[in-house]
Amino acid sequence: MRLNWRRSSRVEDRLEKWIAQQHQEQVLAGKTAPVGPHPDEAFLRDIVRKSKQISLSDSRLDHVANCPICLPRFLAFRRENESRRRKLVLVTTAAACLVIIAAIVSLARYRASTQSPAASVALVSETVNLWDAGTLRGEQPGSLQSVFLPAALVRVKIILPRFSTPGKYAVAVTMDQGGNGVVAQSSVAATTNGQQETVSVDLDLRQAKAGAYFLSTTHEQDQASYYYPLQIR
């Protein structure tokens, strides 16, 4: 037969609690006769705060457990200690919550300060149509089309010249047609729309001074850059 130790333990706990309650009621009603003198307040507080350090053979414990004067004082000290402990737990919990909130706010501010420009600043949309444009390949002269862009964070849709090949293109703004002095650059795959190849890139031109620059496109397989005169306003 399997014994139900858990149930037995609960019954014993209830019995012990009931006996202790009955004894406490008897003491508080003055129906017990304590032995020995009343211990001082320091000992009563030690029972509450340092119970593990008090020897169970100490005769003063027997006196407190049976004294209608000392027992109420001990119970009052215990309630006071429990109230102080609960307040400490609340304060500690509140402090931990504040630390967590501060960490979350700091993390949010850090993410906001390090997020991409496109996520934190409004983009200016521009279209550059190079469908019929001539180009400068390297430093070779040709018939050029002027391009205008603002000194802002720009999302540029570029219609590539006629007969441009599909694939990935690097787009850059440079100081000259040799690719020197890169102001902004980005890479993206071209999109086919009928006979046209277009690319859409974000270029950060906010730090660029107004003046003449070059807009270049470079196909990933060709590696030859085509330059178009650019005016930043």
What does it look like?
- With 233 residues, this protein is an alpha+beta fold.
- The chain has a domain at 120-232: Immunoglobulin-like (Sandwich).
- Helices cover 39% and strands 27% of the residues.
- The protein has helices at residues 5-28, 41-49, 59-66, 70-114, 117-120; strands spanning 124-129, 136-137, 147-149, 153-159, 168-174, 182-189, 191-193, 196-204, 211-219, 225-232.
- The strands form 2 sheets. Strands 2, 3, 5, 6, 9 and 10 form a 6-stranded mixed beta sheet that branches.
- α2 crosses α4.
- The protein is rod-shaped, with a radius of gyration of 42 Å.
- Mean pLDDT is 83; it is low at 138-142.
Record the SSE blueprint:
Blueprint (H helix, E strand, L loop, with lengths): L4 H24 L12 H9 L9 H8 L3 H45 L2 H4 L3 E6 L6 E2 L9 E3 L3 E7 L8 E7 L7 E8 L1 E3 L2 E9 L6 E9 L5 E8 L1
Parallel strand pairs: 1-4, 3-10
Antiparallel strand pairs: 2-10, 4-8, 5-6, 5-9, 7-8, 9-10
Helix pairs in contact: 2-4
